[in-house]
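Contributing new records

If you add data, match the layout below exactly. Sequence lines come first and carry their own label; structure lines follow with theirs. Keep one chain per record. Anything else will be rejected by the validation script.
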Amino acid sequence: MAKVKTKWVCQNCGYETLKYIGKCPDCGTWGSLVEETECITKSSNQSVIIDDNPICLINEIKITESIRISTGYEEFDRVLGSGLVQGSLVLLAGDPGIGKSTLILQTAGHICSKGNKLIYVCAEESGSQVKLRAKRLNVNSDNLYVYSQTNLEAVINQLDVIKPDFLVIDSIQSVYTSNITSSSGSVSQIRECTNILMDIAKNKNITVIIIGHVTKEGNIAGPKVLEHMVDTVIYFEGDKYKSQRLLRAIKNRFGSTNEIGVFNMIDNGLEEVNNPSELFMKERTDNATPGSVIIAANEGTRALLVEVQALVGSTSYPSPRRVSTGVEYNRLLQIIAVLEKRIGLNLSKHDVYVNVIGGIEIDEPAADLGIALAIATCFRDVVVDSDCVIIGEISLSGEIRNVSDIEKRIYEAQKLGFKKAIVPKLSKKLPQGLSEIEIIQVPRLMDAIKVCVSKK
């Protein structure tokens, strides 16, 4: 006879406890614990473990080359590591309304056009709603099956009938399995459904793509509890009120996690952006303002030119504000400390705001010099030339350190028409192909600021 047992589970991190707690002791979220029920069946017979996979020596294991299938988008393939690996489990996560279903439906149309069968399980919409979106996106294929279903057992039955090559679950928060008594969207349901889908991907060699929603409040059980279970975790980022979208790999067993993909949302869906630097630069005017600089950041195998803006204003409060968007907060505090100690800028009575245009997250030290010059030029009301790009890392002593792939960064700036580049003191000569741009080498932060002041 089954015994019913209740437990409280945090819907943000999956922490379990036998009694209600207002604040989750694991992730620190308030009011995130929800009561769930589970059935425990007692059996007098001892369970028998059946092992279908025999143990073998590592030298006896044969390595087979993984088959990759293109998604139809170079930006998507770059993030995945040259395409989808057959038999893998991929999690695509993002805020509601950001365009996850649009991206996957367009990808499904391209995959099916190559002769592959795909089942699109729309657990949140009806088949007619998916058809309306597919019509708008110009997706039409005889190999694309749409199944409006929330029960995972019913989906598994269709796999034996259709025998697809790909399976899409939209979304993982909406499907449920009868093995768990809790409601769909709970941590227990999401974990169990993902375990079943993982077995399907590995045993039946079906590439499974699951979509997960993420909210800022963390009230819905998000992909954080699934990251260790899947092969690839991809986040779809961006402001839903703007057209730019970014694909970023958080975990990838078959490729690098340093790559990003850039898309632009238009009326007919998503289009990939092959030159992201040009997209981020198109709204920049020739008349630069104090506190605005261009930096060259590395994202995987590509160099991106993005604009960094700083605003420095006096404050009447005893503790000035330090606000960073797209820049690590502790990195900003370190740069401000160097400016105060090595340059002599009195920022203790000024608020400092730093923003990276375009929603890009800059986490490499090569942006230090650009951030410092943006703050210093805004503080002194000096304009940096609009055709100048800034590259360099700042040490605590105020020295400008060299960065990796500096030739690639300068080449990207030259390709977009920039005339000057402020860089660290180079230890080697640059290639002849970079002769069209003026290279200004600065050994210290003070020298870089003097160059900007002399350009006023």
